[in-house]
């Protein structure tokens, strides 16, 4: 069969021989490698989440691996010419070390051989259990001899090192820094799929089916087989959707039978661990964009354009928010004051757009950079820190006083002084200010659009943030370039001073909201406790969700933050209504609230699992359904009572 025509290969004897020789050579070199410490191309470091694990309990250890530039390590099944980590543990009495869990790998093809690798720092996680018979204070230092393979695109070197982490039996306490680091590592592990997939052989082809709802997003998917002797690794993988099934077809290899373990990569650092059972696979359906090869670097163009459009429209809607509208109105007033000078209007509009787009891009780049560094953050991450909220509070207060005419602000702060300028400079800084103060808001379309940045590569995610800035700037851009709109603006007159003072009201409300938020952050209050929610709701956690679903009752989960204006509007206008709560009580609905006000890695992961990186997010778990329904970002009482059957 011609691989150039259909992507499948049936005769690969030469490549198979080469792979076997490479693997044999690596194992021989490893067997004769010296046991003493040596310089390695991938530096290992063993760390424990808790250095004082409690007797009868457990902790997690991580073997953090840092490759030198140009080097890579391997997944549990290294592919054609590699192998994963091997450790001979020397554990103290009463300590048991579980198997390593690997993060989602990348597919790397070299010389027609496919490898399953990590080209950047990565960490393998394992559970360590301490027997309840171990006395408190006992030294539990864990050591081992680790063996792995390090490669470049030209050479491979088997490496070995002694790894160790000091622990002693204690109370199981976890330091805050360790918690954040391990949460970041866990976020890159594949999530176990709660249902079995199917697989079958059909001639030279092997076919898989993964049960995934139609709303699940996949970008550059790839199936990594953990069970060896099943697929021809470099062969083309064809992905298609047939209803609630993802169907994968590729060239088979070997004579594996029975159950098969594999990892389905969904996107960057996102994947599912799947166990496949021998069973008939549905026929192929509609081809999935970006799913035509193993490990390609393309993106889902439909997802990209949909997200970009959603970001632009979502940014446009943000202009109606109380924190952004006064700033837009002030610039509109400056146009009216200019007497309709077409050239000046265009210059200022372009500068305003540049300021808004550049600020959105900078915030997006910072967000992506923090995520790449392992931080669990999402959109509006800066508002999860009291210092940022304090700065915004001062700015909102300054703008309010300026709108009221109490004083002009050249001496108060650089941002407002720059925004008060006319011409290009004033337009630019006003656009930047509008984009910055808009970050607490997440309106219709915007949540899903920004959520797409979780699965798109950075170069494709950045334009979506830029689209948000463009959407914010669109009204002012239209006024600057469309004479008909500019001509409809009222002529300069005394009304402008009155209108300017009225604009102080929404900005004053924004300042008040920021002051309350700052007080709650410093005071340590949660959004679900003392922030205006008067109804029965438990704090969200994965364990609380599992417990609630086990009752067989409907479960309503909502993620909120005190700085999220859309969240507060939905809580006051829909969730906290008497009719809704009566319907919930009648149906026995269990309500869980996730507070993201001060940031929470567990909530950030939960948002990411549903394709979001901002709040609000509303989930409805109906009894007997395995997947939740994602509700709209604008709630109505009727929508909630309908779900409850009221």
UniProtKB/TrEMBL annotation:
Q: Which domain of life is it from?
A: Bacteria
Q: Give start and end of each Thioredoxin domain.
A: 507-646
**What InterPro entries does the database record attribute to this sequence?**
Cyt_c_assmbl_TM_dom, DsbD_gamma, DsbDN, Thioredoxin-like_sf, Thioredoxin_domain
Its localization reads: Cell membrane
Q: Which GO terms describe its biological process?
A: cell redox homeostasis; cytochrome complex assembly
The UniProt GO MF terms for this protein read: protein-disulfide reductase activity
Q: Which residues form a coiled coil?
A: none
Keyword Ubl conjugation on entry: no
Q: Which Pfam families match?
A: DsbD_N, DsbD_TM, Thioredoxin_7
Q: What is the membrane topology here? A: Multi-pass membrane protein
Q: What PROSITE patterns would the database entry show?
A: THIOREDOXIN_2
Tell me which UniProt keywords the record has, alphabetically. Answer: Cell membrane, Cytochrome c-type biogenesis, Membrane, Signal, Transmembrane, Transmembrane helix
Task: List residues traversing the bilayer.
Answer: 303-328, 349-369, 389-407, 428-452, 458-482, 502-519
Q: Which residues form the signal peptide?
A: 1-37
- Report the main location listed first in the record: membrane
Determine if Transmembrane is one of this entry's keywords.
yes
What are the GO cellular component annotations? plasma membrane
Record's protein name? Thiol:disulfide interchange protein
Organism equals Sphingopyxis terrae subsp. terrae NBRC 15098
């Amino acid at each position: 069969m011609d691989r150039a025509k259909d992507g499948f290969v049936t005769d690969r004897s030469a490549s198979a021989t080469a792979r076997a020789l490479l693997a044999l050579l690596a194992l021989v070199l490893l067997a004769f490698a010296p046991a003493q410490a040596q310089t390695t191309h991938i530096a290992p470091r063993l760390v424990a989440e808790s250095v004082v694990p409690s007797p009868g309990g457990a902790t997690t250890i991580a073997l953090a691996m840092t490759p030198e530039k140009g080097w890579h390590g391997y997944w549990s099944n290294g592919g054609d010419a590699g192998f994963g980590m091997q450790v001979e543990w020397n554990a103290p009495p009463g300590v048991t070390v579980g198997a390593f869990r690997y993060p989602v790998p990348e597919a790397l093809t070299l010389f027609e051989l496919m490898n399953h690798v990590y080209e950047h720092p990565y960490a393998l996680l394992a559970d360590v259990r301490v027997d309840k018979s171990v006395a408190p204070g006992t030294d539990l230092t864990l050591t081992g001899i680790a063996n792995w393979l390090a490669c470049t695109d030209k050479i491979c070197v088997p490496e070995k090192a002694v790894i160790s982490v000091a622990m002693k039996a204690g109370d199981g306490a976890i330091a805050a820094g360790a918690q954040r680091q391990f949460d970041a590592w866990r976020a890159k592990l594949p999530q176990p799929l709660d249902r079995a997939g199917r697989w079958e052989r059909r001639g030279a082809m092997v076919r898989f089916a993964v049960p995934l709802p139609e709303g699940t997003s996949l970008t550059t998917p790839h199936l990594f087989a953990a069970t060896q002797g099943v697929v021809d690794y470099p062969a083309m993988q064809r992905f298609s959707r047939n209803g609630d099934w993802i169907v994968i077809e590729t060239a088979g290899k070997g004579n594996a039978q029975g159950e098969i373990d594999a990892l389905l990569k969904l996107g960057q650092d996102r994947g599912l661990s799947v166990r496949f059972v021998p069973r008939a696979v549905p026929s192929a359906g509609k081809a999935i964009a970006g799913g035509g090869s193993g490990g390609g670097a393309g993106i889902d163009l439909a997802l990209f354009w949909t997200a970009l459009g959603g970001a632009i429209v979502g940014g446009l809607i943000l202009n109606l928010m109380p924190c952004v509208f006064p700033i837009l109105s002030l610039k509109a007033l400056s146009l009216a004051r200019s007497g309709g000078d077409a050239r000046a209007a265009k210059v200022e509009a372009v500068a305003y757009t540049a300021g808004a787009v550049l600020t959105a891009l900078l915030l997006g780049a910072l967000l992506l950079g923090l995520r790449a560094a392992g931080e669990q953050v999402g959109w509006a991450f800066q508002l999860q820190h009291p210092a940022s909220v304090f700065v915004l509070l001062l700015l909102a207060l300054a703008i309010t006083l300026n709108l009221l005419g109490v004083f002009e602000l050249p001496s108060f702060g650089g941002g407002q002084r720059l925004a008060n300028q006319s011409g290009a400079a004033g337009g630019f800084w006003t656009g930047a200010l509008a984009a910055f103060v808009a970050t607490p808001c997440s309106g219709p379309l915007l949540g899903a659009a920004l959520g797409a940045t979780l699965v798109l590569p950075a170069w494709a995610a950045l334009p979506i943030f830029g689209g948000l800035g463009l959407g914010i700037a669109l009204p002012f851009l239209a006024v600057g370039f469309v004479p008909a709109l500019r001509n409809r603006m009222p002529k300069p007159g005394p009304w402008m001073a009155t209108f300017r003072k009225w604009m102080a009201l929404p900005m004053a409300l924004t300042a008040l909201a920021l002051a309350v938020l700052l007080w709650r952050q410093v005071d340590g209050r949660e959004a679900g406790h003392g922030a205006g929610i008067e109804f029965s709701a438990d704090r969200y956690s994965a364990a609380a969700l599992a417990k609630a679903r086990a009752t067989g009752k409907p479960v309503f989960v909502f993620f909120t933050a005190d700085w999220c204006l859309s969240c507060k509007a939905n809580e006051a206008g829909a969730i906290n209504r008497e009719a809704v709560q009566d319907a919930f009580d009648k149906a026995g609905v269990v309500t869980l609230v996730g507070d993201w006000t001060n940031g929470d890695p567990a909530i950030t992961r939960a948002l990411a699992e549903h394709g979001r990186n901002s709040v609000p997010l509303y989930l409805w778990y109906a009894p007997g359904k395995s997947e939740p329904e994602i509700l709209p970002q604008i709630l109505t009482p009727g929508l909630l009572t309908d779900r409850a059957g009221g």
